[in-house]
Amino acid sequence: MLPVSRLSEYYSNEIEWKALAFGFLPEVNDYVVVHVVKLETVFPDDSDQDSPDYLELLNYISNTVMIGVYSLNTGSWKISSQDDVEITWVWTEQSVYVNGTAFWIGEDYAADQLVIQFDTKTEMYCEKSRCLRSLELRNVSILLFIHLVNLLLTLLKTLNFDTWTCGY
């Protein structure tokens, strides 16, 4: 059983979205869990919402995600954050973990679909914008992407490559 991540201490009404992934890092012979949480933007009742300080704080809060990485070797969580995140929704039912990088599908403020990735080796978070935009129907493109990833994973397993996927 994993120790509780500090990111799990938030209440569900404080979280806009969250994502999990599980994988293996062969370079260091370690299993990892990646936990990404975007907190819900809170609007204080008593603040001056037109003040520059408030708007700057609001922009920071609403565009930051918290990232926790659990290492089986160390038995601990490492917490970091990423600013300038434009993701408003993540398809949390499926994640893919390949070569030290966790992948998810999400949407930005313009409802464009993106591939979200977090590289556990470099601790780099990245959003690949508009890579799923080629099809008119957004839900079809998500399903097509998931199908292609599953097909790739099946092929890799057939060729005796070690891969991990997580669905919850």
UniProtKB/TrEMBL annotation:
Residue ranges constituting the F-box associated beta-propeller type domain according to the UniProt record: 65-125
Species per Swiss-Prot/TrEMBL record: Heracleum sosnowskyi
Protein's name in the database: F-box associated beta-propeller type 1 domain-containing protein
InterPro entries: F-box-assoc_dom_typ1
